[in-house]
Amino acid sequence: MAAQPVSRVVRRVLRAGVRSCSSGAPVTQPCPGEPVVEVLSRPRPFLGEHAAPFSAFLTDSFGRRHSYLRISLTERCNLRCQYCMPEEGVPLTPKADLLTTEEILTLARLFVKEGVDKIRLTGGEPLIRPDVVDIVAQLRQLEGLRTIGITTNGINLARLLPQLQKAGLSAINISLDTLVPAKFEFIVRRKGFHKVMEGIHKAIELGYSPVKVNCVVMRGLNEDELLDFVALTEGLPLDVRFIEYMPFDGNKWNFKKMVSYKEMLDTLRQQWPELEKLPEEESSTAKAFKIPGFRGQVSFITSMSEHFCGTCNRLRITADGNLKVCLFGNSEVSLRDHLRAGASEEELLRVIGAAVGRKKRQHAGMFNISQMKNRPMILIGG
Length: 382
What we know:
Radius of gyration: 20 Å
Largest sheet: 12 strands, mixed
Strand content: 5-15%
Strand order of the largest sheet: 7-8-9-6-5-4-3-2-1-10-11-12
Number of strands: 12
Helix content: 25-40%
Distance between the termini: 31 Å
Shape: globular
Structural class: alpha/beta
């Protein structure tokens, strides 16, 4: 795609986004980027090889220290994204079997006490939970918790973000798989494109930087928009994160639909040969790049073609209270049941430690994963 058509597309999208932004202020002016030193890709060691002491309950048999906890607040969602859930929806857990607010906070306190310093709230769609602002405010009180993030589809974000920021929300990931409104409705099976754009601009207006935009790339659907997404980073403090299409129950995953990281990177380099690799944090799931002079950056989540299991520091708690030590693993343990049976803190830690200790060295590979029984993404916490 030539640069000029991309520019026209992006300007049109940005104008629409700015018009819907509550402040009405333009946010598309680029600012000079800092010089970036290219870092060569190299295998990263397993966490913990030279690590300081860390909670034994959150350290697995390969030395990986799990300091990042993702908590699903709800199984419900106001969209029906094709890669996340079946078109007909999914059977929902009865409300009585979902974690209560107090149970969520009890578990959060326990994990933070053991060394978790980052919590991300997920769903379903976390912003449809009525007490999400209060949950963020209470998490903010936990000593040792440095980051409170949220992953959202953006539909309710512009309305709630001022309250969430005041409560202590420090990081935002927004899902957006296309810049074409009609295609948006096809992918998510609902309307709402301009609400998502309004949410992105509200996050920028309130000073979040970078605002992470998650884009699941699927062949024949949106791989033709890669350059348009990257062009957004010229004038906006975005981290556009291209995610390889992953298999989950009900999403009809097909290897032929998956666009690999290397293929995407080749496409970008044809347009921007000056694209530079950025340094990575040891536990990062993303390979990050930047075009010199652009305000934002682009990243690739390479779960399928180049897994990053060796440095994984993430644990997940589902909305019904199950601990998952691997996104693609189908083994789970119910923390909810132990809580409701009156388990002490020490007993809970033994259950958690045993589950973490059983974590495998790496996931089974995309073809095996596609044949394994697992939850739909909507019920894991995306």
